[in-house]
TrEMBL record:
Residues 94-367 form the ABC transmembrane type-1 domain. It is a multi-pass membrane protein. One of its GO terms (cellular component) is plasma membrane. This is ABC transporter permease.
Length: 384
C-alpha cells in the first residue's frame, strides 16, 4: 500500500507539472486581457502601468516560472476581474458544483442500477410477465373513461394538456392489443430504447423542458437559484434544507439523465455477461435463489466497471456542468468560468483547470482503492 501511494504521488506530481505547462501555454495563447480590462479612453501610460501590474510585460517563460513558484505555495494568482485570489473564488463556488454533481450521480445510481439489472435479466420471469400484462391493460383502457377521470381531477387550466394526453391515449388501444403478442422482454427493450433517448437529448433542451413542466406549468419546483443553505464547517450546503433540496432536484435530474442512460447500458451488459459465467451456474446448482444470485453474486461482479464509470462521470460532471448551471442559474464554478472566459481572466481559468486535473487524479486514486475492496484478487501493486 505504501509503495502504491508513493508511486501514485510521483505520477500525480508529473501529471500536474505537465498539465500546468499545457494549461498555462494554452490559456495565455488566447487573446489579450488588457483589451478588456483597460478602458478604450486610457492613454498609453495607464495601459503600460496596468500591463506591468499584471506581470504581462515579462517573457512567457518568466511568467510561467513565477506562476509555478506561487502555485507550490498554494497561490494560483489573483483574478484580473475580481481582484481576489483565483483559488479562493473557485473554492467559494466549488461546493455548489460538487453538491450538484454528487446529487446527479446518486440519482443515476439509484435509478440506473436497478433498471440495468432488470434489463439484463432473462426475459422469462414473473415480474416481466406482470409488467407486460399491466402495460397492455393501461394501453387498452377506454379513452372516454380516462377523459372523464382526467377532466374531473385536472384543474381547468390544464385543458390543452389533457386534450394532448387523450390524443396519445387514443393510440393506446391498438398498442395495448399488440402488447399481448410482443416478446416477453418488452420492458427490457423499452428501457434500452429509453437509454438511447437519454444519450441523444441535448442537456440545455432537457433543462428548459424540465423548467417548463415542473416549474412553470405544474409549479412544483423552483427553476433557478440554490435555495436556503446551511453552513457546516464554514461551507454552505443546500441539501440540508427542504428549500435547498427543492432547488436541487431539477438541475440534478438534468445532469443525471445522461448518466442514467450510461448506467443502464453498462449494468445490463455486465449482467448478461455475468449470468453466463461458471460461478453463476454453480450457484444455481447449489440451489441459491435467483434473488440472492442477482443481488449478491452478480451485483458484486459488475461493481468494478460501475465504480469506474461513476468516478469518471463524477469528474466530468463537475468539469462540464456549465450548461446546466447556466440554464438553472446555479451558483457554481460553471458560471464563474464562463464569465472568466469572456473576460479573459487568465488566473481564474488556469486555477480552475488545474483544480479539475487534481480532482481527476484523486478520483482515479479512489477508484483504484475501491477496486481492492470490491475484488480481493485485485492487488494495488498491479498483480492479480
Amino acid at each position: 500500500m505504501t509503495a502504491f501511494l508513493l508511486r501514485r504521488l510521483l505520477q500525480a506530481a508529473f501529471v500536474m507539472l505537465a498539465m500546468s505547462v499545457l494549461v498555462f501555454l494554452g490559456v495565455f495563447a488566447i487573446g489579450d486581457p488588457v483589451e478588456i480590462l483597460v478602458s478604450p479612453q486610457a492613454d498609453q501610460a495607464e495601459r503600460a502601468r496596468i500591463i506591468a501590474d499584471l506581470g504581462l510585460d515579462r517573457p512567457l517563460w518568466e511568467q510561467y516560472l513565477h506562476f509555478l513558484g506561487n502555485a507550490l505555495r498554494g497561490d494560483l494568482g489573483r483574478s484580473f476581474a475580481y481582484n481576489e485570489p483565483a483559488l479562493r473564488l473557485i473554492l467559494h463556488r466549488l461546493p455548489a458544483t460538487l453538491e450538484l454533481a454528487a446529487s446527479a450521480m446518486l440519482i443515476a445510481l439509484v435509478i440506473g442500477l436497478p433498471l440495468g439489472l432488470f434489463a439484463g435479466l432473462p426475459p422469462r420471469t414473473l415480474p416481466l410477465r406482470v409488467i407486460v400484462l399491466v402495460a397492455g391493460l393501461c394501453f387498452s383502457l377506454p379513452a372516454l373513461w380516462l377523459a372523464r377521470v382526467l377532466l374531473d381531477q385536472l384543474p381547468g387550466g390544464a385543458g390543452p394538456a389533457a386534450a394532448a394526453a387523450l390524443a396519445l391515449l387514443a393510440l393506446g388501444l391498438p398498442a395495448g392489443l399488440a402488447a399481448g403478442v410482443l416478446p416477453r422482454d418488452l420492458p427490457a427493450r423499452a428501457i434500452m430504447a429509453g437509454s438511447i433517448l437519454g444519450f441523444s437529448l441535448p442537456t440545455f433542451w432537457v433543462g428548459l423542458l424540465l423548467i417548463m413542466v415542473f416549474a412553470v406549468q405544474l409549479g412544483w419546483l423552483p427553476s433557478t437559484g440554490r435555495g436556503a443553505t446551511v453552513a457546516v464547517l464554514g461551507v454552505e450546503w443546500s441539501f440540508l434544507t427542504a428549500d435547498g433540496i427543492a432547488h436541487l432536484i431539477l438541475p440534478a435530474l438534468n445532469l443525471a439523465l445522461f448518466n442514467i442512460s450510461l448506467m443502464v447500458r453498462l449494468v445490463r451488459a455486465g449482467v448478461r455477461e455475468t449470468m453466463l459465467t461458471e460461478f453463476v451456474k454453480f450457484a444455481r446448482a447449489k440451489g441459491l435463489s435467483p434473488r440472492r444470485i442477482v443481488l449478491v453474486h452478480v451485483l458484486k461482479a459488475i461493481m468494478i466497471p460501475v465504480v469506474t464509470v461513476l468516478g469518471l462521470e463524477f469528474g466530468q460532471t463537475v468539469a462540464f456542468s456549465v450548461v446546466t448551471e447556466s440554464v438553472f442559474a446555479w451558483p457554481g464554478v460553471g458560471k464563474l468560468i464562463v464569465d472568466s472566459i469572456y473576460q479573459l481572466d487568465r488566473p481564474v481559468i488556469v486555477a480552475y483547470l488545474m483544480l479539475i486535473v487534481l480532482l481527476f487524479i484523486l478520483i482515479n486514486l479512489a477508484v483504484d482503492l475501491a477496486y481492492s475492496l470490491l475484488d480481493p484478487r485485485v492487488r494495488l501493486g498491479g498483480r492479480a
